[in-house]
Amino acid sequence: MKKGDHLFLVDGSGYIFRAYHALPPLTRKSDGLPVGAVSGFCNMLWKLMLDARNTEAGVVPTHFAVIFDYSSKTFRNELYPEYKANRSAPPEDLIPQFGLIRQATKAFELPCIEMEGFEADDLIATYARLACEAGGDTTIVSSDKDLMQLVGPSVSMYDPMKDRQINIPEVIEKWGVPPEKMIDLQALTGDSVDNVPGVPGIGPKTAAQLLEQFGDLDTLLARASEIKQDKRRQSIIDNAEKARISRELVRLKIDVPVADGLEDFVLQPPNGPKLIGFLKTMEFTSLTRRVAEATGTEAGEIEAAPVSVQWGADAHGPDVGAGAIPAAAPAAATAARANGGSTAAAVPSSAPSDSGTALDTPTDLANKIAAAAVSEKFDHAAYVTIRDLATLKAWVAEATEAGVVAFDTETSSLDPMQAELVGISFATAPGRAAYVPLAHKSGRGDLLGGGLVENQIPVRDALAVLKPLLEDGSVLKIAQNLKYDLVVMNRHGVDIRPFDDTMLLSYVLDGGTNGGHGMDPLSEKWLGHTPIAFKDIAGSGKNFVGFDQVDIDKATAYAAEDADVTLRLWRVLKPRLAAKGLTSVYERLERPLVPVLAEMEQRGISVDRQILSRLSGELAQGAARLEDEINTLAGERFNIGSPKQLGDILFGRMGLPGGTKTKTGQWSTSAQVLEDLAAEGHELPRKIVDWRQLTKLKSTYTDALPGFINPETKRVHTSYALAATTTGRLSSSDPNLQNIPIRTAEGRKIRTAFIADKGNKLISADYSQIELRVLAHVADIAQLKQAFADGVDIHAMTASEMFSVPVEGMPSEVRRRAKAINFGIIYGISAFGLANQLSIPREEASDYIKKYFERFPGIRAYMDETKAFCRDTGYVETIFGRRIHYPEIRSSNPSVRAFNERASINARLQGTAADIIRRAMIRMDDALVAAKLSARMLLQVHDELIFETIESEVAATIPVVRHVMENAAMPAASMSVPLHVDANAADSWDEAH
DNA sequence: ACAGAAGCTTA
DNA sequence: GTAAGCTTCTGTT
């Protein structure tokens, strides 16, 4: 190695653990072998290899090695027997991946370095030193803080998962000390994961401050008596020896007697066939393809290479010897392909969940179909562009014959109520897909001014051919987020049934796991394929062009691929539904809601422009007056909307009493802080709070809402997301009609603008205390159930139980506290949160909670049981079987864990309530029709439904609505607590609620 | 032009 | 203490 050379050292062991926890679990499709960390590792190495040959990337490695821990016993254990003693065994599905990652390294033609008695970190330190002495530079591929002590002028670190370089400034920024003081810092803070003791009570912030003050650890220990804080001084004096031992534990060894020299690390060009053989065995289809392209190798001609898999506990060590078994992959994958994958001829004529036989367990079948959907290649050139009716009819016949067709609409807008249909794509088998351009326009520079491109089937003619297919009860239509396509097609007089929605399948199966339910992440996760990005063909930002401007060849590749991906996803996901027992959640809570919401969105609600305009004027006046007063009081003009400037003025220039802390070092100017200051008699903060309220109302509601009035329908059409929340609630956007103000008189006025059409009324029907009722039922709390059965004031009852005060003549403050506790329970209560809510000391909040649990021991049992269940299974369930996953419930970080525990407790309650109102919505239209009523649902706000109906039917409608809502849980679940619904009718939402 | 923080609205 | 979405400001691309 010489000056100018660059050594890359990959911290293999560190990467394994980080990738395992950071990446979604991934198993080999053919046999379920866990390979998530291996996949991450291979992708990372490949990316580094690509950069290595890209001279523009700046840093070009000439030498390369991957370093591993050999075993957990090292020289440090002699120094301190407890070192890494509390480390638990690695997760079961990680064990086989240790060996696989070493084999991956070899497939990449990279040195795989490990040494008995030393950690990977020591080897890295030693090689970095050798490289430095030879005049070369080193990049350590890791983000482990233990390695940061090595950073210097010729040694830097690179975090491959965040794509971030770590040099001296980054270390200082993160830890407050330069790299050379990291050893002292870690000696003070210790490390609970590795069981390095450190000094109790000293964290990174304090340690950095002490080192800043004293210079280094020895000086600090020698002059510890000078420390002012009593507890801190005592702890450092008492634990000086522990700090010295810790320093030796964290200090990396730079003189390990290594066997290989740097000359063995010279980077070799990739061996395409060898690498592809390994990747094929792992079934990393996407990476295999990329490697084949880059190395000019014909992947199809290469056999999957045998690998050895060790499930045993010894898999930590070198991967020779004991228990190696040949991988089952090639045979299983072949069998799966034969079973039902390859072409149209083998497409099952009904849904795969129906086609399982006695020979296949659901899981086997799921694996086989998944393998088939994944094994077929994505070939954009094979997609067909349909330009005439005869071809279209032939495809419709093919789809009808297949019985299953995936389809997707391409439009000019994200808003389905304004979107123009531009084209339609469909797929009848993996790899067999087509696109029908309908309304592509020529470029805008054209003098013809966006005339239709030639050779397209007219929309009307195409729909006449497609309508029978889309409405054919014997052909299953599959889409991703079908509600969008349904709204678009409904506007053209076409219905879509029967159907499946891959987004909803994923939501039901994997709700709460990391990664969204959009098509791109699903394709990545299940098919290992990255589809063409929308922005790559239609641009983004100022380069954005509507889909109707996209070149038809590009549009074909993009649109047909979407249909192809959707079909393959369905083949992967649908069988998992039955395998996991989630069919009824999908079929009863998700799928039927799609047409219901599509209709609600299409109906929209009338919003009175004039009312909003008048309100906007009033708000502007009020805000302007406050602005003048604020500027006068502050003595200068500034941007009131800037929390930064406001903080500087209030707490800096004006010197108001110590504002509360903030996250990024800024003064907090939250309403809470300003209210507190106002209570102390300061004039300005009150006015800021008022100003914020007025400007918020103006910008978010009175000014924004008119822009959402559809020019054609003159109504506002929100968009409901079915798969956006973790708990099963809906969300509303564009505009969000689930957060229209109500609490303050000023805000409430916004609701007067939501009105019924002439001769009509709005009806608002809302569940009373639904989540507390669900709690009473699920946790089986006798007193609560009795209270709800008797119809008494639940918060007063709680207060009476807790504080032994009669309900008659109860002070409102006592009831307020009980109410906060009741809400707290639903939110997974913590003393910290309750104290905040009630502005009382944490100890007092703690006492309240204790008292509450004494009075209602069943609640504590319920909460403990929920946490335990979630910890065991990784999810919680609503009473209707909806699963909500909390993959971080077992986090070693106590605050992360506590957060997940609270969320899981809340999810059972919030999720059950969400399921109940979903059931009501699904039944509502039929019930209204059966009662010969013309009322229809317009909006849903979590526990409230808004209807519009003709005035004369109001009285008859309310009992029907209440009946459907109050009995919505039946018969799937029989609630032991009655549900109660309040309903009112009026001309506006304000009066009706 | 975009991303993240801060702040505020709802159930 | 739970669950969302939107606007403004601010600093980076």
Compact description:
With 993 residues, this protein is α/β, with parallel strands linked by helices. Among the domains are: 6-168 and 252-265, Rossmann fold, CATH 3.40.50; 368-591, Nucleotidyltransferase, domain 5, CATH 3.30.420.10; 615-714, Taq DNA Polymerase, Chain T, domain 4 (Up-down Bundle); 785-908, DNA polymerase, domain 1 (Orthogonal Bundle).
Give the structural class.
Answer: alpha/beta
Q: For the report, how would you describe the main beta sheet?
A: 6 strands, mixed
Strands, count: 24
**Averaged pLDDT:** 87
Distance between the termini: 78 Å
The CATH level-2 architecture of the domain at 368-591 is identified as 2-Layer Sandwich
| Main sheet: strand order | 3-2-1-4-5-6
CATH fold type of the domain at 368-591 = Nucleotidyltransferase, domain 5
Q: What proportion of the residues form beta strands (DSSP E)?
A: 5-15%
Shape: globular
CATH class of the domain at 368-591: Alpha Beta
SS field, number of helical segments: 39
Question: Uncertain runs with pLDDT below 50, 5 residues or more?
Answer: 313-362
Radius of gyration: 32 Å
Estimate the helix proportion, in percent: 40-55%
Task: Kindly report the name of the CATH homologous superfamily of the domain at 368-591.
Answer: Ribonuclease H-like superfamily/Ribonuclease H
Domain DNA-directed DNA polymerase family A palm: 747-953
Protein name: DNA polymerase I
Domain 5'-3' exonuclease: 5-268
GO molecular function: 3'-5' exonuclease activity; 5'-3' exonuclease activity; DNA binding; DNA-directed DNA polymerase activity
